[in-house]
């Protein structure tokens, strides 16, 4: 970074007599987990749709012969 530029990250903040420093959030793992669960639910939904929409074996056998 050039000497005249400022950083967008705060190192610490003084509020009255209290100093506040930023911390790293521990919720990163939870934010990534919902995507896997949504994908899993979509796969289950597609499997159920395939099973529901296929013809039963008795109807297929009558149509063939």
Short descriptors:
single chain, 65 residues, mainly alpha, two-stranded antiparallel ribbon, 52% helix
Folded structure, characterized:
This protein is mostly helical. The chain contains 2 helices and 2 strands. The protein has helices at residues 28-53, 57-64; strands at 13-15, 18-20. The chain has a two-stranded antiparallel sheet. A hairpin with a 2-residue loop joins strand 1 and strand 2 (18-20). The longest helix is centred in the middle third of the chain and has 26 residues, at 28-53. The radius of gyration is 29 Å and the shape is rod-shaped. 0% of the residues are buried. The model has no long low-confidence stretch (mean pLDDT 75).
Strand content: 5-15%
Oligomeric form of this entry?
Answer: single chain
Largest sheet: 2 strands, antiparallel
Radius of gyration: 29 Å
* Secondary structure: helix percent: 40-55%
Shape: rod-shaped
Secondary-structure content class: mainly alpha
Task: Report the order of strands and helices.
Answer: EEHH
**Average pLDDT, to the nearest integer?**
75
Number of strands: 2
Number of helices: 2
Low-confidence stretches: none
Distance between the termini: 78 Å
For the largest sheet, list the strands in their spatial order: 1-2
